[in-house]
């Protein structure tokens, strides 16, 4: 872990009691706290039930990228989990304050965590944790990815919303187990596949696929998270005259494509160099363009 | 919440640094802690990823029930999540110490929580939280239950173990969402149904069904938790000359049965009086017998 190196700047922790609106007792909506001290009670529902949501914002040379889309998605996750709506202005200010309080570093990872709160209290717990990002340089030059069954159909959002498809929850044990399975298979990451044969997303990333002049991602209606990165790239690709779309794709579509990437706010655009046992073309120039866009430098 | 009533005894919190074996620094394997103070760091993987497992032991008039089977299941969950094996003797002693430290009450709920620990640390976090149980008396006299799609097939344990079927994880956001959906439909609880049409379990309970002289529960191989309560009841039913079995059942099987229950260590045996729109016979005498067995009084 980068954060355990002695020369890594200390992380910053901001507690945000005003995350769902002004605290009733008149205290400040957020304040710095000691990240090395325990801050959470054992009866917080995020601890007892994984009952919460989150976002991770990438900050590059001090500039946070896609804060608006991340907060849009946090609000959407809150809606899907029937949590109180997050107070947007408070979170924007708190994210800025966390970045301001952190030592300047090239890449900062800012997690916004929002839980159902203490059992019986009925008010969310929220904090922001800013820390030096791990080094993903190798990941960004090409990765082997394996496909793994997600067990669910792409029709689940329509039929069974209580399965919380498309919500970025803190119940990520399956996502973590899938990551371990990928590593066991000698891959850096995995791509989830629905039971009806369509590719979905990575456990912590969005899929982007190139077929000739067309760039495609999985439709949100299939139960994936609305990607923040993919929208940034789509806007730029459209300006450059490419076609962009949300469309269901099979594993064969991806394996036979002209390039594919897993996108994330901190790992950025990771080209898939091999999907299961099929080599895929890697366009490092286009990947560099994506990286510039996703770090706010293009 | 019972715990917020002023005359409810204070909960007891025991931190268990020796949960995976003796702590390397020679400290005691467990110690009492202040349950009203924050005890967890924001970088514990149970908080950032829901990456942990748990058990809830019911304690009736001071006697914990099924501690062995609960610890067996905790060990199984740890294996499925690739967590270090819990140290059984330490946990047995810690459970006893938590019960001992709590004011005598008729029904105590003892949660054993076991997480992947702090990011980068590689050692589990464990604590035991003992508190007066909520009042489930009404629940135990008959409940309306609705069936809800679980989105997964009963073949998932065979094909896709990374989906963690049968592990009692702290990633329970879907279980909680299903509970809310059940309440929205005017039911007290729900029964999950697999995509291949077989009934599974409740979000926090095991299914038991009576058909004549035969009592049936869902096979563990279908992806449900191995129930601790159902084994207690099976042993007694067998002694009384009934047939008991693990067997796949459809919704129609349950709706047409001679009685069905949702079993849990704290709610005990809740007879299903209505499944979706079908009334089911409720045998209160047998339910009382189950209650006596599950509280260690038979």
Automatic annotation (TrEMBL), chains A, B:
Gene3D superfamilies noted in UniProt: 3.30.470.10, D-amino Acid Aminotransferase, subunit A, domain 2
Family of the protein in this entry: Belongs to the class-IV pyridoxal-phosphate-dependent aminotransferase family.
GO molecular function: 4-amino-4-deoxychorismate lyase activity
Domain of life: Bacteria
Keyword Lyase attached: yes
InterPro entries xref list: Aminotrans_IV, Aminotransferase-like, BCAT-like_C, BCAT-like_N, Class-IV_PLP-Dep_Aminotrnsfr
Keywords of the record: Lyase
EC identifiers of the protein: 4.1.3.38
Protein name: 4-amino-4-deoxychorismate lyase
Pfam annotation, one family: Aminotran_4
Protein's organism: Brachybacterium sacelli
